[in-house]
Specification:
The structure is a single chain. This protein is α+β, with helices and mostly antiparallel strands and 106 residues long. It has a single domain, classed as Alpha-Beta Plaits (2-Layer Sandwich), CATH 3.30.70.100. A hairpin with a 6-residue loop joins strand 2 and strand 3. The radius of gyration is 15 Å and the shape is globular. The two termini are 14 Å apart. InterPro entries: Dimeric_a/b-barrel, Monooxy_af470. Keywords: Monooxygenase, Oxidoreductase. Pfam families: Monooxy_af470-like (PF13826).
Length: 106
Amino acid sequence: MFLVTFRLDPGTYDAEFHELNDAVQAAAEDTDGYLGKRTWHAPESEEVLVVYYWASLDALESFGADADHREAKRRWTEWYDAYEVTVTEVVESYGSGFGDDPDPPA
């Protein structure tokens, strides 16, 4: 499994952002190998972390080729003050206390 952590400092969102953001999320969900996402908001700042879960690097690369996703990456300065992406391969995952389903969110 691969995780993509998208860390962002939001700027100003307009209608065009929301339309493109919705299209990018739909493209992710339509990509074979997309497993879900989780979002966290930092209590002391406006920073946001979004972690996307992917079954394989091939799935992630397939999503990366999506035209809406590429457009959003080109236009990031219109809507974010800063961003950072980290791609991580999960070697092992374990624990308890989050219910019976250890899989990422759908």
